[in-house]
Amino acid sequence: MCEVEFDARGKNLTEAWRQARLKGLLADEVLPPGSKASSVEVRASMRGNRGKDTRPELMLRSLLHRRGLRYRVDARPIADVRRRADVVFPGNRVAVFVDGCFWHGCPEHHRPATKNADFWREKIDGNKSRDVETTRTLTDAGWTVIRVWEHDDVEQAATQIEETVRRTRL
């Protein structure tokens, strides 16, 4: 397609994409009808956000597994309730949620979106309300719910979860 000879891979990629655009080899991407994203770049970023297997979840699960705990991943604690927990200990009735600071409105780290602000405020408020409802529903059904923020110390979270699971052994 083209020759690039910068000293850094990032510069080479940037130049290669620039030349591809100049040669008409790339089509301009447009937002699909009905998209709520404010731009193509925002849409790509949002689509790249994981719903499960995030770095904080993987780190926590790894620690729990090393401590000898076995669990289900991304599972419904109650089969007929459409809510999924990140880590579930069915026999102990313990459900763990690892909440992301942006998506769940962390009081310490959440920074409101500036573009499409009304949409995002409603979205995050809805997520927070659903979190409260989920915790209440599970607690009312006899489950212990543990919520961990993505920024929490993973060792401390694993210790809290391990102690809770071992205490609730049936």
From TrEMBL:
Tree of life domain: Bacteria
Keyword entries, A-Z: DNA damage, DNA repair, Endonuclease, Hydrolase, Nuclease
CDD domains per record: Vsr (cd00221)
InterPro entries attached to this UniProt entry: DNA_mismatch_endonuc_vsr (IPR004603), Restrct_endonuc-II-like (IPR011335)
Gene Ontology terms: biological process: mismatch repair
GO terms of molecular function: endonuclease activity; hydrolase activity
SUPFAM superfamilies, per the entry: Restriction endonuclease-like
Similarity-based family: Belongs to the Vsr family.
Name assigned to this protein: T/G mismatch-specific endonuclease
Organism of derivation: Lentzea albidocapillata subsp. violacea
